[in-house]
Structures are given as C-alpha cells and as structure tokens.
C-alpha cells in the first residue's frame, strides 16, 4: 500500500527548531529544592500546540524562588522570583494576591495553556557547549496561532561541526536515519536528552530532581477547587 507523506501528522517530541512565539500546554512541572542555595524551584516542560512545531517541546523552564535574597543592601541585581510572577500573572492570568504553592506545581499546572516567547541561550557544561530554548516571557494564548521565527533557527554547537538538532529517536540529524545510533550518553544537561537534543544546566546549577517526570500525589491546596486554582486559573 502506498504511503503519502503528510507534514501535518508528524510525530513530535524533539525540541523546537526555531525561536519564536508559541501556544503551549504544560506537560510536566517538577518541584525540587536547590542543593546549593536551598531555594525552591519548579522545572516546567511545554508542548507546542499548533503550527509547524506542533507536538515539539520546550523543556527545562526553571522557576526559582529566591525572594530570601531580596533584602535591603543586597548586591544581587537580578531576582529569579520575579519570573514566577510574570509566569503566573502574564501567562496564567492570576490576580494579585492569589496564593501559589510551588510544591503543588504538578497538580496545579499540568494541562494549563498559555503562550511563551523563546530565544536561544548558549550553555557550557562538562566542556560541552550547546544551545537551549530559553523562555523569555509569558502571555495568554495567541489567537492567530504559534509564530516560529524561521530567521532564528537553533545555532550549531560551537565545539563540533554537527548540528545540535536531534530527532525523537535519540540520533543527531547528521545524515543518519531516524533509527540511527544513539547520541553520546552524557547526563541530561551535558549531552543529549531523551529527545535527542542537547540540554542545558538549569540556571540554579542543579541537575533535575531525582523524581523528574514522576507523578506526584494529587493535592488540593485551594480547597474543593484545587485543580482549578480556586477560580483564579481559568482554562484557556
């Protein structure tokens, strides 16, 4: 039987190929505590919902609560916790004063939809340089659909002549077939991840928590409407 190629029905799973603006759904949100600073943080994974990058992912968006560092006389100039406020207010539409427990992130966030703007950020770990998709801002859903910026593809690694772009089966796109040899088996932030693309160290210099991707017990921090955010988080 003849098979007809169809670009609208591709298997997803690889990291996005272009920077841009994307309608996304949160597919995972993992809570952990930084070993180095003691700060609470959440690692979020997004799936693109539409357009040419549909079903592809934007992994390792780190939300870090460093409010304890924001004290009079602090020499620190950038505070990561402000990104959490942008995520909650600009992306999910929460009103001021709405409580949010980071430890309940999986229960509260998985399945929520928003849009994100992405750029590329170079990362070096264990002597290897790679480029990660960096979420720069959060917004409500784009009515006109996702907008990949084809003028800004993922840059190539600076320490090799092969592209960082990988396919869903763990092979670099260097001429091998989709079921070619796996990439180097480095850790999740130094080499290739489960999706075949290099991933980066989180901004708080921690590896993903040991339970990354594991299901957490369902919790109801907002009373009887916990999963619905007590009315503060409407479905998009």
UniProtKB/TrEMBL annotation:
Residues 140-236 are annotated as: Disordered. InterPro entries: DUF669. Residues 174-197 have a biased composition (Low complexity). Residues 159-173, 200-221 have a biased composition (Polar residues). Pfam families: DUF669. It comes from the Bacteria. This is DUF669 domain-containing protein. It comes from Weissella muntiaci.
